[in-house]
Amino acid sequence: MKAAVLTAQGPPSVLQIQQGYPPPQRRPGEVLVRVAAASVNPVDVKTRSGVVPRLVTAIPRILGSDVAGVVEAADEGSPFRKGDRVFGCTGQHIFNSRYGTYAELVSASEDAFEKIPDGVGYEEAAAVPLAAMTAWQALEARMPLEGKAVLVHAGSGGVGTFAIQIAKALGARVTATCGPSNVALVTQTLGADVAVDYTKDRFDDVAPGPYDVIVDLIGGDYETRGVKLLKRRGKGEPGGHYTNLLTHGWNKKYGPGLGGAITLLSAARGTLLSALGLGPSYELVTIQAKASRGLQQVAALMAEGKVKPLIDRVLPLEQVAEAHAHSEGGHARGKIVLRVAEL
Question: Signal sequence span per UniProt (predicted)?
Fold first, then answer.
């Protein structure tokens, strides 16, 4: 099969297109999918660049966790049949598998997949799974969200665009931070009630809350400032909830080594204080790659027209290095999709 293979850690050029790469072998409980499209996630870039240590990264390997395509084979009794249009997050970034979705075939647990809603194309579907599931799992601690206040940092990024739409679809009032060029996008396209241009204003000054949920995709001092804006606990009231998505805000100030250590220590401190009841409700979200943990629910919202992925660009698989370079630049609006095959 054709695949984009990570041959070493380094710049985008280490991703090489190879023909005749050995296909994955489907195991019991898995679904073999012929890939139409995949998408690029930050974890792919971190794995390729070396931010994820070589010791925990199998090489050579095929990157990619998001996929949309057609079922080739499944177990007898599986909810999926040959020819079904499906999408899902294979969890390759979690399980350290050598077979990801930047290829013509991928095999993964059947609980990772959901049928693509009618009227949704493969490229659109491929932009959804990991980012949408991350957003859902970041919000679910305070669901139902009807009438609640939600703050989303990095509102124009992959996860942020879904977090805004999901929260709005579930009845929340949403504030989002973004750059000046994305204010209209965040409010008019995604539906946020308030957009804070981080180059002009400090969010804690102009949008002080209090909030039921804060979805932090930036970290650093955004966290230390943000936890102060959560709703206080009260009789019968759980108070606000802070979701840390293991961000890299401190890396910009201290570098990936020390910055990463500070991030982990801050997350450990917040989690411990929360568990002891000495601080606000705090969660370090580690994504569960199961369709039941957000993908099924978001698929239903997509079918109703309430959630739509924002796609920055679609590139052929052969331009995977360009896709990674653009993602690494940090200014993608929504998701970068790889077109693998015409199905």
Answer: none
